[in-house]
Every structure is written in C-alpha cells, then in structure tokens.
Amino acid sequence: MAAASAPGKLILFGEHAVVFGEPALSTAIDLRTEVYVRPHETWLADGASLEEPKYRYVKAAVARTETAGPLWFEIRSMIPVGSGLGSSAAVTVATLASLHSLRESFDPRTIAREAFEVEHEVQGRASPLDTTTAAAGGGILVRREEADGLLWTIRRDTRTWSLHRCDLPSLTFVVGDTGISAPTGPLVAGVKERVDRDLDAAEAVARIGQITLEGLHALQRRDLADAGRLMDENHALLNKLGVGHPKLDRLLRAARPHSFGAKLTGAGGGGSIVALTDRPEDTRRAIEDAGGRAFTVRTESEGVRRIG
Ligand code: PMV
Fold this sequence. Notes:
Bound molecules: (3R)-3-hydroxy-3-methyl-5-(phosphonooxy)pentanoic acid
Helix content: 25-40%
Number of strands: 12
C-alpha cells in the first residue's frame, strides 16, 4: 500500500489579475486530502467506479502514470468541494504522490508539473497556482518573471508561470462560504471581455498586481492592519471586474468588524470570502449569522507528503 496527503489553498491576493500576467499570492492551509492506494482486482475509488465524475481527477492522474495493475483508491478529504479552497488540486497532487510512492519515487516538482497537466486536462483552463501550492506548501507567489525564491517554472502554449516560495508568518483566517457555486471559466471570460473594452477595468487589473506585492510585504512584516486594508481594496477592485456577488458582500460586511480585512477568494461570482483575523470565533459567528458557512483555517507550511 502507499499513501500521501496534500493541503488545500487560499488565494490571498491577485486572482483574475494573474490571468493577465500580474502576480498572485496563495498560501497552503491546514485542511488536507489523503489518498490511500493498494493493488486490487479492479479499478475502484472508495468502492465506486473511477468513471464517476467526482473521480475524474483521480482517473486523469492514473492515465499519466504507469501502474502494474488495477488499484483501489481511498480518498479522505477535509477540504470542502467547490469553495475555491483547492480541493481538486489537493486530490490530484495526493493521488499522483501515492502513485509515485508505489514506484518508490517522490519528487514534489515532478508531481506539481503532472498535477498542473491533470487539472488543465480536466478543467480546460488552469493556472498552476493551486497545484504548486498543494505540492510545495507554504506561501507561493506566481509571476511572469523569475525572481528570488524561484521553485520552478511551468510553461504551456505561449504562457509561462514562475512559481516562487515566499515565507509568510503563521496566520489565521476565517473562510465564509456563500454556498453558491459559480464555474470559473465564464467568470474569467467575463473579466477578459471587460478589460478589453474598459480602461477602468484594465487599471483595476494593474492595481491588483501592485496590491499583491504590497500585501505580501505587509504580511511579511506582520503588519496585519495594512494587509487587511489591502485585502479590502483588492475586493473592491474584483467587484469592479464583475466577479462579485451580493452574498459575498453580505458576508464581508459581517466579517469586517471582527477582522483586519476580507475579500473574495478564488474565482468569485459566489464561492467564498476570506477574512484575516485575530478573533476567529467572533468572525465565524458573524458570518454564520449573515447566512454563510464559516470555518477557521491556518497557514500550513507542509506541502505534499507521504503517509507511513
Ligand atoms: O477557483 P480557484 O480558486 O482555482 O481560483 C481561480 C483563480 C483565477 O485567477 C480566477 C483563475 C486562474 O486560473 O488563475
């Protein structure tokens, strides 16, 4: 038998702007997905067929890996699905890692590259931020050009992403889930259409890029008040790009009196908010009172790891 786990992620700054080549910052969080694998007479995941849609990442990961015979997978995940917390990246990375472990190999860089290809194949679009964060853990800055702390560069078609390790202090966040799921593809397309015709939207994208770097520096000097202010500003700009939702704003209004700042995280249009706070209980309760599902998460330094 072999087993591996990988963490979920939060995008702290820069979603959507990253599609236009601006930097974005994510962190791994202390919610993990574990994948156990053992030889079996037929292909199964949790006793069900790999053909079931919820196992499409597992199936695509299997297709990229040579295996001696059929396998039984067991997946245990703490990461809510469809909340923008990187559940698909974590299951992809942990599945690939368990498959590699069966063959006595384990290289996070190779796993990160393969996981990006799997996400790209299954989702039709993807940036390598989620899969790199699940593989490497900690804080990850993605940008076009290479800089200090470079982990690896990933290329696809004409695009290049340079993924960097950046040290973040230990931080506490409350995630507020609207329960509204909105597919990422149309949101990304809507932003592109807006940026092409509206100078204000193009300026918002550029400003988000600056905010990402300012936010990273604020977090690194532990100036949580400044980081929170930048999160608020980032959220207002995401609203300008058309990826907000009234329920996101309702949860934000509830969270802000108890936190340094808050913004939507991930693709938006629904999904989740993230609030940076030193009063997680008050923040959680306020979000729940406003009709959201809320839970506390912390930064996680460990990426993919073998179990056992
Ligand atoms: O849905 P998530 O958490 O994978 O976030 C999508 C982030 C976008 O910037 C909107 C798209 C992307 O691929 O970077």
